[in-house]
From TrEMBL:
Pfam families: Acetyltransf_1
UniProt name for this protein: Acetyltransferase
Keyword Transferase: yes
N-acetyltransferase domain segment(s): 20-166
């Protein structure tokens, strides 16, 4: 894959590309949870219900943004931000297809999401993740996110992070 490069651009939350990335992201994190806690994959009916229940509309302007990373021109990952308060945005849906991990896409997606959050007026980004998503926790720490106390009561959240954004 020599010569392949990443490009990152805004994407409508309801585009076919965004829908495919959301399905892949949700399937992976849901299956990982069920395999760890119940020794099985997500029930297909539950999976379809939960994917359909989360439209992603909060990741659209003027208070949000969904970004899609393409590797060699093909959709490869995503990251989203949404304003929670005028100066605080949430980082969400950070995902890269498994076969493209390790090629530098996740840090680029997070950097683009930070820039999008700044453009929305945010001075800080917050996020939550789970204990079993070790790669995500490692990524956030490497990119300067500090682990904090809880900022929400999401039943699946086990780790919370925050980063003050430098205003360019």
């Amino acid at each position: 894959m020599a010569g392949m490069t990443w490009t990152i651009a805004p994407e409508p939350y309801d585009s076919p590309v965004a829908a495919a990335l959301w399905r892949a992201y949700y399937t992976e994190v849901s299956d990982r949870w069920y395999l760890l806690h119940e020794g099985r994959r997500t029930d297909p009916v539950e999976l379809e219900r939960e994917i359909a229940a989360t439209t992603g509309s909060e990741l659209s302007p003027p208070t949000g943004q969904l970004l899609v990373g393409r590797y060699g021109g093909e959709p490869a990952g995503s990251a989203g931000v949404r304003l929670l308060e005028p100066d605080t945005a949430e980082l969400t849906r950070v995902f890269v297809y498994e076969h493209l991990r390790g090629r530098g896409g996740a840090p680029l997606l997070v950097a683009a999401a930070e820039e999008a959050a700044r453009a929305l007026g945010a001075r800080r980004l917050i996020l939550d993740t789970r204990s079993d998503l070790v790669e995500a926790r490692t990524l956030y720490a490497r990119l300067g996110y500090a682990e904090t106390g809880p900022h929400n009561d999401d039943v699946y959240a086990e780790h919370w992070f925050r980063k003050e954004l430098v205003v360019n």
